[in-house]
Amino acid sequence: MSHAKPDAPKTNFFSFFRPQILTALKDYHRARFLKDLGAGLTVGLVALPLAMAFAIASGLKPEAGLFTAIIAGLLISALGGSRVQIGGPAGAFVVIVYGILERYGLANLIIATAMSGVLLFAMGFFKLGTLVRFIPVAVVIGFTNGIAVLVALSQIKDFLGLQITTMPANFFGVLQALGQGLPTTNLYATVLAASCLGILIFWQFSMPALAKKQGWAARLSMLPGTVVVLVLATLSVAWLKLPIETIGSRFGGIPSSLPGLVWPEFSLKSAQFLLIPALTLALLGAIESLLCARVADGVIHDRHNPNQELMAQGIANFVTPFFGGMPATGTIARTMTNVRSGATSPIAGIVHALTLLLIILLFAPLAQDIPLAAMAAILIFVAWNMGEWREFVNLRQYRLPYRATLLAVFGLTVVFDLTVAVEVGLVAACITFIYRISSLSRCEPVSTTDHPFLQGKQDRIGAYRLYGALFFGAVKLIEDLQDQLPSQALVLDLENVIYVDSSGADTLNDLARLCHKSKVRLIVCGLNHQALDIARRSGFVENVGAEHIFQDLTLGLAALLSEENPVDESR
User: pTM of the full predicted structure?
Assistant: First the structure.
């Protein structure tokens, strides 16, 4: 009687595209919604000044940041792989976007952002989300601190109220422009910006302690410091009629509606030039969002889906630029605000986006009096919190390769380009890793104490144990054995070899051929797992002969002993 085979499970798009919101809304109830509502409203207020500030720092109009926070923030929360992550414009993109905008123009920035969205979605689709974790910590800290320096440097112009028509995108050009513009310093703007920065520092470091002692301070501390600064600075400029540049004087205010679809001219020629910028945006967005999600996971004791998160980021970055937005990713400050405010599901992120939409629809005309000096103070404060400056102090406790990699990536990010910095950092990290792994791989003679049979026969029988990985960086271990072949037999114990690559397999085959040519018997012991698999596929087992391959060293030496005894008895 025949039995029909069970049908194979069907796979479709929705089997792997599963937003976290579908799981998070199970057993959803009124109490959870109220928590998400409160968290979303709070994050919306925090995101308001940051979204505008990041757009202005990137060379765009402030509404570009708001549109990004609304559209991309909504899509990332609704389709993402994290329960609490908040998406939107981020400081990490400021330098990259400004450079693309200056070199290629707004239309090509839209195309590059959309291309980065396609790349991000492809990374998630092909399950490459976990590969981002392989980027060394030194590289991540190096470029993060470098970006923080560049973000702060880009805000000195508005912090001091300098009269500079256009700011260059390169580091030395920025320094030159700032130096030439110093005589035009606006004292009112400088005092206002310094006051805003002082309030932000007080709000972060002193307000929590004061809130524990005073009831009014506890209620006041619930407001985000950036919102307090924005309101106070705007009221000061409006009431005192200070001669300070504002959003209205530079950009003409903010529209009180969402933009329509914008379709730029597209050509394959421009796409070729934009591939590297798009790849930079995609990689930076992937790193930022997944690192942010991991930090959030540690706080809420949950685990995000990195591939789903990348696909959501890809969709958001593909859609948003065609509606006046800029690149978006997960944002650590807004995400942690969301977590601390009690968010339980992606509904909080959706509420955050709707809050910003409501603010635009109802209060957009009020934004024209927001001083750019206050926005600069907010961004400088964000840049300070963005960097991991203690790592520079702690460099002494790390090895030289780690220090060199971190400092090289930091310096190259600041002086040259983020893409070059990451490339150099990854190459340096790979070289360091290869060197360290090759130094851990070793070859040692088998002890005659453990195997007395070898006593006095080292000139005829060479027995060695190999440890570690036999790869292209450690093949010299085998090459050294080729230079000192014994006269009768060579025994290799590979039981402690955890990995053999194609270069290692080729070198082993060269050794087998040399032993055959020199009429030296080659005995191989302890081939296991991956080493055994590649030995079979590379033909090494066939070259050596199955009769010369043994499960362990004891069996291999016993085979030699059985051949030695008849010879000894005849003597």
Answer: 0.80
